[in-house]
Design brief:
The chain is mainly α. The chain is 66% helix and 0% strand. It starts with a helix and ends in a 32-residue tail after the last helix.
Length: 119
């Protein structure tokens, strides 16, 4: 009986760990795209310049190499940050600035339509 409860508890903890990692991965990817847009523009500019420079060295695959390495760098940074936050035990519900992840709708403000309605 105790062995089955221990096994069930470890399965639950591993599922919570995977769920936390996936939520962090999604959250960090969205934040990188939305908040980090100037960083993405800067990386694209540096990537274009680097591919122009590398074009003289390897004419066929310079753009592919630069684009692939920039995408891989972004994906690895998001996965590494999500893994570190998950291993430290920080759950996304504990972070105050991630209020859009919480189910609490008491602080939500809804846009009111300016059309007249009889309520």
């Amino acid at each position: 009986m105790a062995l089955s409860q221990t096994s069930n508890l470890s399965k639950t903890q591993s599922l919570l760990l995977i769920k936390s990692f996936l939520i962090w991965t999604f959250t960090l990817a969205v934040c990188l795209l939305v908040v980090g847009f100037p960083l993405v523009v800067l990386m694209a500019t540096v990537g274009c310049l680097l591919s122009v420079v590398l074009q003289s060295v390897m004419p066929v695959s310079a753009v592919l190499l630069v684009a692939g390495s920039l995408i891989m760098l972004n994906v690895m940074a998001v996965i590494f940050a999500a893994g570190m936050l998950t291993l430290k035990g920080v759950h996304p519900k504990e972070v105050k600035w991630l209020s859009w992840l919480h189910r609490d709708r008491s602080n939500a403000y809804y846009c009111l339509c300016c059309l007249p309605f009889n309520l």
